[in-house]
Amino acid sequence: MQIKNLRLNLTNLKKIITSLSFFVLGLGTFLWLYNYDLPMTYNLLRTVTEYFFYWFVALFVSSLFAFILPDDKYKKWLKFSLVYVILALLIAYIQRDTGSDWMSPDGEELTKIFAGLYSFLVIIYCIVQFFKNRKF
After folding, report:
1. Widest pairwise Cα distance in the chain
2. Is the CB of residue 65 less than 8 Å from the CB of residue 71?
3. Per-residue pLDDT tens for 14-33?
């Protein structure tokens, strides 16, 4: 009985994460577009909004791919995502004030690089797991 409830909870968790990332993506789009009309005193709000916007795009796309994962692989994806996103956001936030040449990218460029790498890794992982679990 508990195992059945656990599966139901993981299925609901998949739907909740996808829905939440889609909602925050929409909210982030609104705030991101609205912030360009604000004076420069809101620069921190603009920076944080841009960092999170790219991540919620990546999380939304990867959560759609994660629907095909079995429950145990989904838990691994969720743990990996949590650790990776937090570390990448911290690194990007620390690097926000550096120059923007190719040797020292700023926070926004690092966020784009980390989000792109994350999306690529998750899509490859989901495709490999899909074909691995598929019966021929």
Report:
1. 59
2. no
3. 777 777 777 777 776 676 66
